Each structure stands twice: as C-alpha cells, then as structure tokens.
Amino acid sequence: MSTKPLYLYDSYLWEFEAKILQVRENQVILDQTAFHPLTGSVASDLGYLMKGNMKYEVAEVEINKETKEIAHTLEAAAADLNQGDVLKGMLNWERRYRLMRLHTAAHLIAAIMYSDYNALITGGQVDPAHAKLDFNLPKTDREIFEAAVEKTNEEASKGVSLKIYFLAREEALKMLGIVKLAEKMPPQEKELRIVEIAGIDIQADGGPHVKNTNEIDEICLLKIENKGKNQRRIYFTVK
Ligand SMILES: [Zn+2]
After folding, report:
1. C-alpha–C-alpha distance, residues 161 and 201, integer Å
2. How many angstroms separate the alpha carbon of residue 190 from the centre of ligand 1?
3. Of the residues 98, 122, 207, 230, which has the fewest C-beta atoms closer than 10 A?
4. How far is the CA of 178 from the centre of ligand 1 (A)?
5. Which residues are within 5 Å of ligand 1 (an ion), measured at CB?
6. Are strands 231-238 and 131-136 parallel, antiparallel or unpaired?
7. Rounded mean pLDDT of 53-61?
8. In Å, how far are 15, 20, 61, 218 from 43, measured between CA atoms?
9. pLDDT, average across residues 15-33
10. What pLDDT does residue 89 have?
11. CA–CA separation, 47 vs 196, rounded Å?
12. Are 86 and 17 a contacting pair, CB within 8 Å?
C-alpha cells in the first residue's frame, strides 16, 4: 500500500483529492498526496486535510522508506476518518513556496561553491525560515561566502529554468555531477528524479523546487559557523 507522491511530478500542486488507505490513531495514510514528507534535508509540508466541513490540521508528514507509505500526522485525533474516505488536502502554500525557493537557492550556492572554490557540500537542511549548508572548506573565509552568495544572486536573476525528469538509475549515474555530494549517493531506486538547472547544476533529488531561478528573489547570507576540521556552515534565507 504505497502512497503516490504527487509532489515529485508537480511542485506547484497545493490542493488535491485522495482516498484514505488506513487510519492509525492520529495518522492518516493516503493513496496519493501533494504533502512533501520530512527528509534528511527538507522540512515537511504542513496544511490541512478536509472531509466535508471537517478540517484536520496536519502537524507532520513522514515517509516510510521501505513501504513508500506517506503518513500525515494530525494535530488532533482522526475522529470520523475511515478507510476509503475521500479527502481534500490543502498545503500551507506560503511555507511550501519558501521551501521551494530556499531549496533551489541551495542548489545554486552549492554549484557555485564547487565550481569557484572546489568546496564539496557535506550536508544541509532547508526550513521555511532559513537554510543551512555545510561545506568542506579548509578556512572560514567570510569573503568567499559573501562572494558566492553575490554570484548566486546574479545567476538567479538571469531567470534560468529548471527541468525535472526521470531517468533509469544507471543512465543517470553516468551523467550526473554527483561529486558535489561528498558522502551521500542517491537512494537505491530503479529510476532517479533528476533536477537540472540549465548549465549550472544537475542532481538526483526528490525535493520541491521552483520552475525558474528568478522566483528565488534575493538570497541573504545570515551567518557562517566553524563546525570543526574543514567544516564550514552557512545560514541563508530568501526575502
Ligand atoms: Zn533539490
């Protein structure tokens, strides 16, 4: 009983209908969903599930990596919700759109840090308020990060479009610039979802992105932290 991940096919889908596969206490498993679950690097979507006039607030969304079931944890009990019910789902779009903009900005910054400073990204997290990225860089040089963010803003303002498509895993791994991910390989899937920012970046990636880099608007560097040997962390946000 897996959940069809509608968010992989359309990042701009914020309203959808779905059938309940199962109710477990205050968790609802749907046959399909536009709610992006919490992953290692992106915060989950929030919003509402509705059955007629009843509105249920979604507090957390998680995916079971083995079964591919996506569970929507509700703020309150799933009273009156039953297997087979058809619900309407609505994302908190303001939150999701910030995640899309910040996530796409993270790709650009990582690509520029790699091409200009040979710095590999070793981790990251995108939350609605801000994002953080870790780089393998020998010294904390504020000027490097300031210059990278400035260049990222210049590139983003050119209005580069993003392409999202699926490729057989073998084919994808042959063409990807996967070196940017210092430790993480894409998960074991037959097909990989490819996110391509024309001429700038290409990644195997399941996260939500904007269609064009001009939607990012302006990226602001918040702070830089020294996280130990060769590990530099930057925090940034978008307006
Ligand atoms: Zn991404």
Report:
1. 11
2. 19
3. 230
4. 13
5. 205, 207
6. antiparallel
7. 96
8. 19, 23, 9, 21
9. 97
10. 98
11. 28
12. yes
